[in-house]
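Lecture notes, unit on binding sites. The following record was shown on slide 14. It pairs a sequence with fe (ii) ion.
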Amino acid sequence: MYGHDFPVPDDGPAGGLLDQVEAAEAALRTAADRGRPGRDPAADTDPQDYFTALIDADQKIEPRDWMPEAYRKTLIRQIAQHAHSEIIGMQPEGNWISRAPSLKRKAILLAKVQDEAGHGLYLYAAAETLGVSRDELVEMLLAGRQKYSSIFNYPTLTWADVGAIGWLVDGAAIVNQVPLCRCSYGPYARAMIRICKEESFHQRQGYEILHVLAGGTAEQHAMAQDAVDRWWYPSLAMFGPPDGDSTHSQQSMAWKIKRFSNDELRQRFVDMCVQQAGVLGLTLPDPDLRWNESRQAYDYTQPDYAELMRVIAGDGPCNRQRITQRRRADADGAWVREAAEAYAAKRAAERTAVPA
Ligand SMILES: [Fe+2]
Ligand SMILES: [Fe+2]
């Protein structure tokens, strides 16, 4: 927990999760100090065996290491999808920068959206260590050959949506991403530590927006409730299909890219939100949500996975708008990239020029 300017349950919206990020960071340092399992170059160890030994020893795989092609491809797909989500995710909230209700809210939202651009950059940089260029990845996004999170294909209809996105969408993102701080691929794990620290702040700002609205006038309270009603199930869907239908999970767990199943993480998120909704004085739109004593967890209604599949396939409320906007931004920014390249080339030429 970062402060106490509004009442939250004991360990706050992201307090417990942030502790896990700190622990992952400490584990990263301990593993580095412990050193990697020995490899005698002369003994001609099978690279696959050494890769497995590194994973078993909870050491990180680094860009210089040999890795199975499928591991590399899985990581590129996952990191790229993650990077694209950060960038496309700037749009729904960017929609409210010019209409934020006060200068303070505007400054906070601007900083948040800017953070997301930064997350995109860390992640593209992490993907590049796997031998793919950022240009290639952006091209694949624009051509619809790589995905971004389905959640960003929903519209932001009111100011309260900015709060609901921070609380629920950034909240679901952190629950998903905290275990990635222990991912076996070093550059991804390190990027995630930094990202999760910022995401927990995003979640808190969303929670605070909703807290103010929920405690305001009847109209403001209704607006907050309406936003939560609309974002709840799409947020649950962010954890992906149920475990039985999840295609990549098993192998990703064996490689220690992924540490928990989709359903485990979804449950964790639900349990966290119920308590927080209570503090907000808002209701989660699920009449079947109730504590299950024997499971020590909440029973809840699953999101509509058929809808998730439709949105992933391109038929969500805003898919076309998001990609059109991204293509336009890419085209509008072409001159900046060209100018930066020309400037870099000029500087390089100046540096190598032999003084007369
Ligand atoms: Fe982010
Ligand atoms: Fe965020």
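Take-home: DSSP finds 14 helices and two strands in the chain.
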